[in-house]
Design a protein that fits this description.
With 244 residues, this protein is α/β, with parallel strands linked by helices. The protein has helices at residues 11-16, 37-50, 66-72, 77-84, 95-108, 124-136, 139-163, 194-200; strands at 5-6, 21-22, 26-30, 54-59, 87-90, 114-120, 167-171, 173-175, 189-191, 203-210, 213-220, 227-234, 237-243.
């Protein structure tokens, strides 16, 4: 089973996922700000880069931190430099730039061997583009933006399946309106991109944060049941607080 997975970069998460993230699928990690989405991506990226493997990190939010990599590697400067040399960072500033990156990926992969692709966050630039389309009040413009999002997901799916490259996407959430707060004490949340992300992602991971308590919930997986784990973030990465 481990042959079809890559390490998450955390002993406890590898145990939770029975070896790590699957290689030939899109995994979407979603949750509110500060819940640990980028940390999960960095841990996996560092794990691959430490082995001398190449990682493509598409950073649309400016969340990639070389200082955090330095912490994870126990403040070893030499190892940090080695690891960072194996992580290629792209920083799109518009939805169109993100689209171009994905279009060129298939050509790029013929020349470079990549072990992991991270997109953090996949939806930030999409939300900006969608907001502009909504302002026009034209249904055709809104449909055009959503079609582009679907095409990007289709391209990433093709890459993961054909090249057996695991793809980690991070996603934002928004709260759903509560009709009966007595029956639903916790506010429900939904992913940006909704059904499109749910359809193309074979693995869905929700992160929750309440005060200092963080919880990882496996919402969808091809071979594992829904389950959850409380975790905490520390200098060396992520570790469990207790099983649920």
């Amino acid at each position: 089973m481990e042959e079809n997975r890559i390490s998450s970069g955390s002993y406890d998460l590898n145990k939770f996922f029975y070896g790590g993230y699957e290689k030939d699928v899109i995994t979407t990690i979603y949750g509110p700000a500060g819940s640990g989405k980028t940390n999960l991506c960095l841990l996996c990226s560092v794990s691959q880069a430490k082995k001398g493997k190449k990682v493509l990190f598409i950073d649309s939010e400016g969340g990639f931190s070389s200082e955090r990599v330095y912490q994870i590697l126990n403040k070893n400067k030499e190892e940090t430099q080695k690891v960072l040399s194996n992580i290629f960072i792209l920083t799109p500033t518009s939805f169109k730039e993100q689209e171009k990156i994905f279009e060129n990926l298939l050509k790029y992969l013929k020349e470079q061997e990549i072990s992991l692709i991270v997109v953090d966050s996949f939806v930030m630039l999409y939300r900006i583009e969608l907001a502009d389309a909504i302002k026009t009040e034209l249904t055709s413009e809104i449909q055009k933006v959503n079609k582009k999002l679907a095409e990007q997901l289709r391209t990433l799916n093709e890459i993961s399946r054909k090249h057996k490259i695991p793809i980690l996407l991070t996603n934002q959430v928004y709260s759903l309106f509560q009709k009966n707060e007595e029956e639903q004490k916790e506010r429900e949340v939904s992913m940006v991109g909704g059904d499109l992300l749910k359809y193309w992602s074979k693995c869905l991971i929700e992160l929750k944060k309440k005060n200092e308590k963080r919880t990882l919930i496996l919402r969808k997986h091809r071979s594992l049941p829904d389950k959850s784990i409380d975790f905490e973030i520390y200098d060396g990465g992520i570790k469990k607080r207790g099983w649920i």
